[in-house]
Amino acid sequence: MKYVAAIDVGGTSIKSALVDENFSVITNVIVATPIGDTTGVKTVDAIDDLVQGFARHKKISAIGLAVPGSLDEPNGKSLWTGNLQWRNLPIRDLVSRKTGLPVAFGHDVRAGGLAELRLGAAKTFENAIFIPIGTGIAAALIIDGAIRSAAGFAGEIGHLDVGGPYECVCGRKGCLEAVSSALAISKAYEIHTGKKNISAEEVIKLVIQKDPQAIEVWRDATSALSKVCATLITILAPEVIVFGGGVAQAGSLLLEPIAKELKNKLTFQKLPELRIAAFGTQAGTIGCAMMAFDLINTSQK
Question: Which end of the chain is less packed: N or C, by CB atoms within 10 Å?
Fold first, then answer.
């Protein structure tokens, strides 16, 4: 039995797991992503600590590493990551040198899309879109049964203009990510109420409790998502859109308003199924493991 370390770096936390070749999670660990780590040194050290911890249990054959932002996937670089403040960072090679292990590298959202495509909510579809909603927002585009990345640039839907009033990490106003991400939902609720440190998950609970400010923030977030989904449907005609990340744990509270708006927005287009990710918040981690085993299998041929 072979084992890999799956490392999913997000804007807020690093999700990691020790995974076997049946994609069973032996153990997982979540740590905070270092803040203001523009050189990546602290992040690489944190990843090494996680890998060494897993190595005390099993021999690690490879690492599957996923990060957010705009990537040069073939060369293992993070070109720009707003939430992590990285630019032209050769993160794959830094991790490989530090750990002494081969590293499969990719986008965090496409890693999650890979898991949902092979074993999850998109498994039976040829054309699908995976949209995890976390600190940021992007999409994995599944076309004709394969994830299309355009060498790492495709799917940055978080920076489509939905007309919102808030400034995004990219420096522009109006981006989807500045309205509908978990971080944006938390910030918007603070602006509406003056209450600080209220997470998106707590805002969702307040929506259920009929809090008017929470309802307004949630309505803005889901409406912006529906606008972008309508554009994606018109251009790509997916059979299913799968929502993941922490915000998607809201389930029908997320899907129902988006479905309702899409029915009103679309005319001739075919309405896709809307689903919640089968792997939940672990989709990216499982996808990282798949990337690592793909690397192992390729190297053995």
Answer: C
Q: Is 114 part of any domain?
A: no
Q: How far is CA 72 from CA 12, 62, 87, 153, in A?
A: 22, 20, 11, 8
Question: Which single residue is written with the structure tokens 């989709």?
Answer: 283
| Count of residues in the chain | 301
Domain CATH number, residue 16:
3.30.420.40
pLDDT band at 279 (very low <50, low <70, confident <90, very high): very high
215-270 pLDDT per residue, tens: 999 999 999 999 999 999 999 999 999 999 999 999 999 999 999 999 999 999 99
Instruction: Write down the residue that tokens 């084992």 correspond to.
Output: 3
Tell me if 113 is assigned to some domain. no
The label of the residue with tokens 């929470």 reads 214
- For residue 233, what are the domain limits? 121-277
Cα separation, 91 vs 44, whole angstroms: 8
201 vs 19, 69, 72, 134, CA distance in Å? Answer: 28, 23, 33, 11
Model-wide pTM > 0.90: yes
Compute how many other C-beta atoms are within 10 angstroms of the C-beta atom of residue 188: 25
Per-residue pLDDT reduced to its tens digit, 167-198:
998 999 999 999 999 999 999 999 999 999 99
Could you tell me which of 59, 61, 55 has the C-alpha nearest to residue 297?
Answer: 61
